[in-house]
Structures
1.
Amino acid sequence: MTTVLGCIADDFTGATDLAGLLARSGVQVSLRIGVPTEPPKDTGPFEVIALKSRTALVAEAVAETRAALAWLKAAGAQRFFWKYCSTFDSTAEGNIGPVAEALMADLGTDQTIYCPAFPENGRAIFMGNLFVGQQPLAESPMKDHPLTPMRDSNLMRLLAPQVTQAVGLADRLTVAQGAEALRAKLEALRAQGTAHVVVDAVANADLEIIAQACRNMPLMTGGSAVAMPLPDLYLADGTLSADAPKVPAPQVAADTVILSGSCSAMTNAQVAAYLATGAPAYQLDPLSLAQTGSADVLAWLAAQDLTAAPLIYATADPDSVKAAQAQLGVAEAGALIEKTLADCAVAARDAGARRFIVAGGETSGAVTQALDVTRLDIGVEIAAGVPWTFCTSAGQQIALTLKSGNFGAEGFFDDAQKRLG
Ligand code: ADP
């Protein structure tokens, strides 16, 4: 069917997060990994294209995003959403501003909004200043991010050097007056030539108002949360027909494999909780992998009963990770484990696994690539920001969940299995 909203996300887990929030409304959401090489076919009402452009060179990010826009336009979309991180991860060069200006130029629109707020996750904007929990952005751990250190909390000041046109603010006092007042404020700013408008939001109710006021703008930009109300609004105003396809729930055999390459504190707790259930598990040791390769783990996997949902994990505490990295190098240790887990995913699929539970952002990238998955249909949510997805791999229908490091509760690996029934 014709796409109602075309979304572009600047990284993979951000795209899954957005897709999951849109699917909460029960509508079908499709996620594409990278700009599809084929013209649109079998598109859904909500299409999300995942790019890896957050820290790419500005020109590359702009070119990739424009290609994504062209594909979504060809799918019939007339409204678009540019999704970036709720901590506004960017540098003085970009890529949030330059990408937004390029999209605006291609769409022939003279104004857009910026709303990275995600109140459920503690991201709030007040008077144009972004807070992470109770801390201003520039005092939060984001000040030390290795690629995009955020040293200012004021979104107007962060955005201004990234764009060529005027930046303004629609503050919480306006938002609190409702959608009409916000629309009037945006119009007044437009009349003054303000192309880029930061919009305050501290609670989900603010996001509802913003989405209502801005739902017919050609381009909205923000974190995932401000897009969450859009499907229900489009259903209510008839933009999306009530018989639009719903969240899919195909029958997928219960043979399962769990692959964990994340070393975050939460994934460590999730692995420990799963080991405590007595489930079959194999721990990957990067040093022995470097010496003897993956034959041992593949032999172990081949001997497993996949209905018992075996776990293969490299997840380790920070000291063990540092020790492995000191011996092998950071990138080499990571690449070796990602390759091994990706090989395990393919071997498990060929042995009949149809449900894959994967922990780790980079690990998820490696596994989806190895399984040659390019389109995922978003299914039920397991934990906030972590849905089950459905896709095909080597001609087989499979279910896949991709969990970024800190997401999910301690029982995630069991929760995921139960959620699919
Ligand atoms: P997260 O979402 O928690 O950041 P990622 O999968 O993105 O997880 O990143 C974890 C990285 O650490 C991957 O590159 C993975 O291969 C690597 N890794 C996993 N286990 C170990 C280990 N025991 N020693 C060294 N590196 C590891």
2.
Amino acid sequence: MPRPPAPGPRIARAAHSEAADQSAPPFRLASRQFHPESSVVRAGGISFGAGLVVIAGPCSIESRRHILESARSVKAAGADMLRGGAYKPRTSPYDFQGLGEKALRWLAEAGEATGLPVVTEVLSQEDVERVAEYADLIQIGARNMQNTALLRKLARTKRPVLLKRGPSATISEWLLAAEYLLAGGNPNVVLCERGIRTFETATRNTLDLAGVALVKRLSHLPVIVDPSHATGLAALVPAASRAAVAVGADGLLIEVHPRPAEAWSDGAQSLDPRVFAALVQELRAWPARANAHA
Ligand code: PEP
Ligand code: MN
């Protein structure tokens, strides 16, 4: 895989212009300047940063049967890793909040049944040990990107972390959040762009594709893209996925539901398994770096 060039001083300055020291990026351990080689982060036998990794599964785990069915369909479609939420960060306290520990158990069971490693979100410090027991990769959601106490605690677990970009976080703030994990002793960090908040409301968020290309230059850490939360619309997910791979993303995190219309959360952005299968097949057929299995 060709290595992106180190950032020139102008690019590095643009990304942290709010920092007092303009000579070096404030995110030292995350910076490519001090670590020119791209990092490969391993989680549950999957390598991030060595070809396209596809993570897929439902937004929320709805039952044991549901996650097993989801796992089988994404595995058959060619996914590398299974996702599913047990602790859900919802905008409204009246919305479904996730089924908690029993959902974690079902997720791990579905992962074992299909041979897929699993990723799931941890919402609070008190759940870190419990989630670490079941998850191969622990997700920090967009809303928690700057929860520094949670970052510090996750740094101590040494379990690989998927760090989503906050909806209003600058690239510098995102890389500084990664720095908390790295400085706390956990080098296993995968970044995830999932769209940022802009004036535009026609899509759920605005997918910052140039930001992905920039972070690949600024940092040695693998970067994946979540086209589901970035767009909010299943019809846009294939196009956003292709674009993400084209700008150099190391992977995709895609919400897939056996029956999107019946999903307990995020059905509008969830792909039908057949659409997902066609997308994975298309992306795996791309040449060179787009193919993790090549
Ligand atoms: C999710 O991946 O389930 C999720 C809630 O995403 P985000 O934190 O990006 O909103
Ligand atoms: Mn979701």
3.
Amino acid sequence: MPSDQSLPNIVILTGAGISAESGLKTFRDNDGLWENHRVEEVATPEAFEQNPSLVYRFYNARRAQLQQDDVNPNAAHEALAKLEKAFGSNLMLVTQNVDDLHERGGSQSVYHMHGKLLSARCAITQQTFDWSDSFDHTTKCPCCNRVTLRPDIVWFGEMPMYMEEIYDALSKADVFVAIGTSGNVYPAAGFVQIAKESGAHTIEANLEPGVTNALFDESLTGPASHIVPQWVDQLISKYAL
Ligand code: OAD
């Protein structure tokens, strides 16, 4: 669908903070530990090489947790789905999150730049498969029938996904909003600078100012489930959608 010239082009980047009220822990709010692990123990290619059992176990636990009955999208995820309905292809939703809460909240198009928990990837062909159960070094890959499956997650030191599409959208953005992300991890933390250089109005929506806060034109401070629906409703009524 072509974009509507009468509406602004919006790029939204979300991080762990948008899913915090859905019961998923953020990365840096718990003494720097992610579910009791240092990130280098579980989220690097080196960790997978040295201790694959731990890495499989860790992501199997995250995948199971995501599918528990008490983990559900919150009002912020739902508001972004409403924004997508109103703005169509003028909106690009990029997430650093590997959960599926945007999709369950109703968003149709979500760019998971750090991969997905509910997916497995063949380390040889790079083919991906929807995957909701546990898997490990004994699980046969559906494409090559060998034991080559790895979590479909972008680990530290690996290239995030969809970078070409994201940079293209940032270069055309009129509005850039970062929601629930601390601004510690690049390249995502650099998106605000790129959007600003393209002339976008930049907004940070977070529980507290992140490390790149000075680069934003506007700050919305508070829990995502309050500030995001408010902002979305204002934008929708501004454009009478
Ligand atoms: P962080 O844990 O670094 O930051 C989460 C941010 O959300 C913090 O700034 C919190 O203040 C904020 N926050 C917490 N609760 C909130 C709430 N209810 N409403 C709004 N904001 C809230 O997470 P990310 O910035 O997403 O990468 O981390 C980026 C990447 O680092 C992750 O994608 C992950 C990690 O290592 C990979 O796994 C590849």
4.
Amino acid sequence: MPSFQTSPGTRDIMPPDAARWRSFNAIFADTVEAAGYGCIIPPIFEDAAVFHRIGEATDVVAKEMYDFDDKGGRHVSLRPEQTASVCRAFAQHRPTTPWKVWYTGPNFRYEKAQAGRYRQFDQVGIEALGVNDSDLDVEVISLAWKFYQRLGLSGVQLVINSLGDEGDRAKYVDALRQYLQSNQDALTPEARQTLDRNPLRVLDSKRHADIEVIAGAPTIKSFLSIEANNHFEKVLNGLRMLEIPFHQNEYLVRGLDYYRRTTFEFVSTALESAQNAIGGGGRYDGLVQTLGGPDTPGIGFALGLDRTLLACDAEGVFGAPKSSVDVFVVDVIDGRQALVVTNRIQDAGYSADRAFDARSMKAQMKSADRSGARFAVIITSEEFESNNCIIRDMASAQQQTIAIKDLVDFLARNLGAKIPRRLTP
Ligand code: AMP
């Protein structure tokens, strides 16, 4: 028989790690819903042209799309990110503004798989559409910052820059291209290739030779319009008011072409520099219009779930929760009583597990131990004849006999009252 493995760049998220993912998402939802963001669930694939708006010259579009013709001949793509989908949804449904949404879920990019870089990876993110106010930039950044703090991360750096408006950016790209072209000989062949496609991307190079050239490159700051500059100064002031530390980096351009004005990235100091970006975002004031909607400003961020958890591991925070149940039911008669008692405990709002296959008392008690249960309920023929069971405190090993009908009351006294899962008559 063939033995199958996950495809390169994909992983099984096994228990208890998957439980950690769930609480990651729950903490994120709680953080952003507290600021009025509503959950949106866009489709996982859509018209590939939607994603082409990210920028034809970006690696994401030019090299990494999982696109194909479906059986109806439509050219579709698995989403490589969700901002374009959210903007497409805005253009399609025209909700009233400000429109503030959050999302979570997998994205797909055909990348060279390695630690911290996957072909299927998850992101959580927010997008806020219809507001020019620089205070919104501050709100968006502060929500990511708050979230990292709630995870317990302390080695996160906020790096920020302004890319100006479309005109500013175009003038800067021209100046940068000229500078890089006149220093071509000192660049690596990879950077020379990138230069032909998109000079801004050269600034992302982590190769030593390129870094030396980049150090002398013109920066965007002197190309910013007065409005873009004022906007940026107000954002920085707002961050100071909220006591969020930041580093300005005039070479921060980020991977996607649609960014305007405020651009930012979160870097983990606990991770290797090649894969240390754990999230990022910025303004994308022209994007909705390119997707057929009205001219609408927008700003958002996406945080890499996989990579943020690697940063948590590196800092030793936000570990996988220990899975445990409240009660483990041991039935040494024939298992039928365990069926009824486990069911009743679960309906009363507690968690309960049991053993199967009529295993020995010893084997069942071993399972009870492994389950992490606070109490074992032990049903023997002798006790059952008088409708009783034994309840064992797994930590202290103290045992007592109680009536089976009083089990839920016992749990309420010892574990606190729970909301029943099913209202019993
Ligand atoms: P981007 O959508 O490219 O702005 O990326 C935002 C964040 O998503 C990055 O900072 C990473 O944390 C994460 N990310 C992007 N691509 C990948 C990938 N291939 N594997 C894992 N995480 C990724």
